[in-house]
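Supplementary Methods. Inverse-folding protocol.

Structures were first reduced to a C-alpha cell string of length 210. This string, shown here, constituted the complete conditioning input.
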C-alpha cells in the first residue's frame, strides 16, 4: 500500500489536470484551480522540508568540522540573517519586499553584487568553452565558427562599420536557420516530456518514490 497510494494519487491528479484542460466548463474547469491551490500548499511544505534538510546537513558538517565547514557556517548565518530581516521588514512595513526594509537593503547590496560576480565569472567559462568549440576541426565545426562570427559581427557596432549588411545577415541567421533548429529541439523536448509524463501517470516510471 505504501507504493499503491502515491501511484493512485499521481494518476488521479494527472487525470484531473488533463480533463480540466480539455473541458474548461463547470465543474471540470474549476478542478484545475483547486489542484493548483493544493499544489501551492504542498510546495510550501516541501520548501520547509528542503530548508530543514539544508540546515541539518550543514549543521552536521560544522559539528564534525569537515572540509569547508566555514562556508557552511556562513550559509547558515546568512540564511538566519535574511529570515530575521524579512520578518522584521514584514512587521514594520507590511512586506519584506518594501524598499525601506532591511531585507531589501541586504538583497540590493549583497545578493545583487554576488549575482553580478557569479555571472562575470561565468562569462570567462563561456568564452573558454566557445574557444574550444569553435576550433575548425571538421566541416560542422567550421560552419559553427563562421555562423558565430557572422552573428557576433552583426550584433556589435564594429561589424556595422565594417559592412552595413552584417546586421541583416545576423538577423536572417537568427530568424531562419537558428529558429528551425530551435523548433526542432523544442518539438523533441515536448515529445520527451509527454512520454515521461505518461510513464509517470501510468506508474511505469517510479523513480520519484525512491
Amino acid at each position: 500500500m505504501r507504493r499503491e497510494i502515491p501511484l493512485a494519487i499521481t494518476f488521479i491528479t494527472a487525470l484531473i489536470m488533463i480533463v480540466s484542460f480539455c473541458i474548461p466548463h463547470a465543474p471540470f474547469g474549476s478542478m484545475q484551480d483547486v489542484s493548483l491551490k493544493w499544489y501551492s500548499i504542498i510546495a510550501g511544505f516541501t520548501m520547509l522540508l528542503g530548508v530543514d534538510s539544508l540546515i541539518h546537513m550543514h549543521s552536521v558538517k560544522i559539528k564534525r568540522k569537515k572540509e569547508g565547514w566555514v562556508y557552511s557556517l556562513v550559509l547558515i548565518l546568512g540564511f538566519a540573517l535574511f529570515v530575521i530581516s524579512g520578518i522584521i521588514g514584514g512587521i514594520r512595513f507590511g512586506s519584506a519586499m518594501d524598499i525601506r526594509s532591511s531585507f531589501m537593503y541586504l538583497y540590493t547590496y549583497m545578493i545583487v553584487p554576488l549575482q553580478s560576480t557569479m555571472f562575470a565569472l561565468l562569462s570567462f567559462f563561456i568564452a573558454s568553452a566557445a574557444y574550444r568549440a569553435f576550433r575548425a576541426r571538421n566541416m560542422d565545426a567550421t560552419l559553427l565558427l563562421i555562423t558565430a562570427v557572422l552573428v557576433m559581427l552583426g550584433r556589435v557596432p564594429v561589424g556595422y562599420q565594417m559592412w552595413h549588411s552584417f546586421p541583416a545577415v545576423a538577423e536572417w541567421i537568427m530568424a531562419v536557420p537558428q529558429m528551425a533548429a530551435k523548433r526542432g529541439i523544442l518539438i523533441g523536448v515536448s515529445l520527451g516530456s509527454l512520454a515521461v509524463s505518461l510513464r509517470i501517470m501510468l506508474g511505469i516510471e517510479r523513480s520519484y518514490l525512491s
